[in-house]
Design a protein that fits this description.
Chain A is mainly alpha-helical. Chain A contains 13 helices and no strands. Chain A starts with a helix and ends with a helix. The chains are: A mainly alpha (288), B mainly alpha (293).
Chain lengths: 288, 293
């Protein structure tokens, strides 16, 4: 007697689960289409002729409409190779500097506890919320005074300062999980503090990867500081280069779309590859 | 155990490089910017007291621009608040659903991809798509003062929605399973479980992402500048505090550059953000923390 209702209930539950799975998938697919389709439209149209773009903007390139003139124009009239080089230099240098400085600071704040440590930690952490951009006026004055204005070094310095608080918060959570025994054993064996840190480093590698991936996005994509600190043609980053290019070639749609595609693709690819580290970094850094 | 004196020396050695860069290029400029707002550089750098502030708030032209930009920044944040955060929460809740566990990573990556684009790309991409000549809508959404800012705000929401999503997703999956198991045994439905158990538990994180969104939107500049330049029209209807700051400091076709006034606007924005954020942490976040496990 009792088994029948139980069985019925199980069947109903499974049906309900299947129905809810379908609904969840349906909603997520709609969201994913809204997120991805506009990007696909741009990428797709960048491979078409102007006629092809205007005639049927939402059609995939056909034999008649396929065309690479947009890309040719971008590379001949734009400054893309140099822009890419600048963005790569700035991003890689910022990541390296942020990792080096944040690792040292986070290690020391976790490892060498003294009375001012909590205060110092708080001073760094509060920076996660500080709108650095509002200090632009003095930043320009400093860069002019030191002769760093319109150099990539100016960008690297400001971005490193901007990214340090989150990176330190993140590295501290990873250093806290390094077992004390490991560090004490190293010190017993007579290792100096640099050696002890280098023994702990392999254990915080996921943290370093997370710092690298969350530093990459805002630095590569920033428009404000390149516009203000390094605007000359020789120092333009990709983001600024695309901005100026689309301003100049408003009517050359294939070139415009090619410029947008070239600006977008590198980070989409990098993010897709490193999305796990990125998500880990985002949640661990802000969550604590 | 390392001796206290040695610990101080080691702390200094390892922290100093980070402290110098962060202090020199982040904290000092912010404070110095506030200091600058009390001086008058046209008069040989003499102390101006509240002169710059009085000018900003009382000059008919400048104050009109300022209140307009402030109103627009509030609207810019408001649209993120009522569109981005609820939909981000919905996405996060859907992602935590056990029934899609195997495709979770794929959806998460796809939904986050717009956030990897630069605003320059987002702005032009959407401008092309909503272009009245050949795009999806025939109404000039960006050309009408009533719809321009909401349209730009929604572009920004489209771009950044992945951030609250990831944030809230991480909070949701961190809820211990036994709590959810208990509610399942009680026969609670998914909807009830979410609002009565899960959401109260992630309220501190929801509060934090709300305040971060507030800080980010009040610092907004890029998307408006990318689309409409530094005197964003039509008729300043999309002018937010960030674009007004840029225009004031660097000047534009209709305005000469004014360093002091620029620093003053930056300081006012800084105070607004500081006071709101501090008030939030003192009044709300502490209360929310009491729910934490």
């Amino acid at each position: 007697m009792t088994t029948v209702p139980f069985k019925q209930r199980r069947v109903r539950l499974q049906k309900g689960e299947a129905a809810s799975a379908t609904l969840v998938h349906a909603l997520l697919i709609v969201f994913a289409i809204v997120a991805i389709l506009p990007i696909l439209v741009v990428v797709m149209n960048s491979f078409k002729t102007t006629m092809g773009i205007f005639g049927a903007p939402f059609a995939i390139p056909s034999a008649e409409t396929f065309n690479l003139d947009g890309y040719k124009n971008v590379f001949t009239r734009g400054n893309f190779a140099a822009n890419y080089a600048n963005s790569i230099i700035v991003t890689v240098a910022t990541i390296a500097a942020t990792i080096a400085l944040a690792t040292g600071a986070a290690w020391a704040l976790v490892e060498y506890k003294v009375r001012i440590s909590p205060l110092l930690t708080g001073f760094f952490i509060i920076g996660i919320m500080l709108p650095i951009r509002l200090g632009t006026v003095p930043i320009i004055k400093m860069m002019v005074a030191t002769g760093l204005i319109d150099t990539l070094a100016a960008l690297v310095l400001v971005y490193t300062a901007m990214q340090l608080p989150l990176a330190i918060a993140l590295m501290m959570t990873y250093f806290r999980s390094v077992p004390t025994e490991l560090k004490e054993a190293a010190r017993m064996d007579g290792a100096g503090e640099f050696r002890t840190l280098s023994i702990a480093l392999p254990l915080v590698r996921p943290g370093i990867a997370a710092v690298a991936s969350i530093t990459m996005l805002p630095v590569w994509n920033d428009l404000w500081f390149p516009l203000i600190l390094a605007p000359s043609k020789a120092n333009q980053t990709v983001t600024l280069g695309v901005q100026q290019f689309v301003g100049q070639f408003q009517s050359d749609y294939p070139a415009l779309l090619a410029a947008l595609t070239l600006g977008a693709l590198p980070l989409i690819v990098l993010f897709t590859v490193f999305s796990r580290q990125f998500i880990q970094g985002l949640s661990a850094g802000y969550g604590k | 155990m390392i001796r206290t004196g040695t610990r101080y020396r080691l702390l200094a050695l390892f922290v100093l490089p980070a402290l110098l860069v962060y202090g020199g290029f982040a904290v000092y400029p912010l404070l110095s910017s506030v200091a600058l707002s009390f001086f008058d550089s046209d008069n040989g750098g003499s102390f101006a007291g509240l002169g710059n502030y009085i000018y900003l708030f009382t000059d008919p032209y400048v104050s009109e621009r300022f209140w307009n930009a402030l109103r627009n920044s509030v609207l810019f944040f408001g649209i993120h608040l009522v569109v981005e955060l609820p939909i981000g929460l919905l996405m996060a809740a859907l992602l935590t659903s056990n029934s899609i566990r195997r495709s979770r990573g794929v959806y998460r990556t796809l939904l986050f991809i717009p956030a990897t684009l630069s605003v320059v790309i987002v702005g032009f991409l959407w401008r092309l798509i909503i272009n009245p000549l050949w795009g999806l809508v025939s109404f000039p959404l960006l050309g009408d003062a009533a719809t321009a800012l909401p349209t730009i705000s929604l572009m920004s929401v489209w771009q950044y929605i992945g951030i609250p999503m990831i944030f809230l997703f991480t909070a949701l999956i961190a809820i211990p399973n036994d709590i959810l198991e208990a509610s399942r045994i009680d026969g609670a439905r998914a909807w009830a479980t979410f609002w009565q158990i899960k959401f109260p538990l992630i309220l501190p994180q929801f509060g934090l992402i709300t305040i971060l969104t507030y800080i980010w939107t009040f610092n907004g500049f890029d998307i408006v500048y990318a689309l409409n330049g530094s005197a964003p029209g039509p008729n300043y209807s999309t002018d937010i505090l960030g674009t007004m700051f840029y225009r004031t400091f660097f000047g534009s076709s209709g305005q000469v550059a004014d360093t002091d006034l620029g620093a003053t606007i930056a300081s006012v924005v800084f105070f607004i953000i500081l006071v709101t954020t501090a008030a939030y942490f003192v009044v709300l976040q502490r209360r929310l923390k009491t729910y934490e496990l």
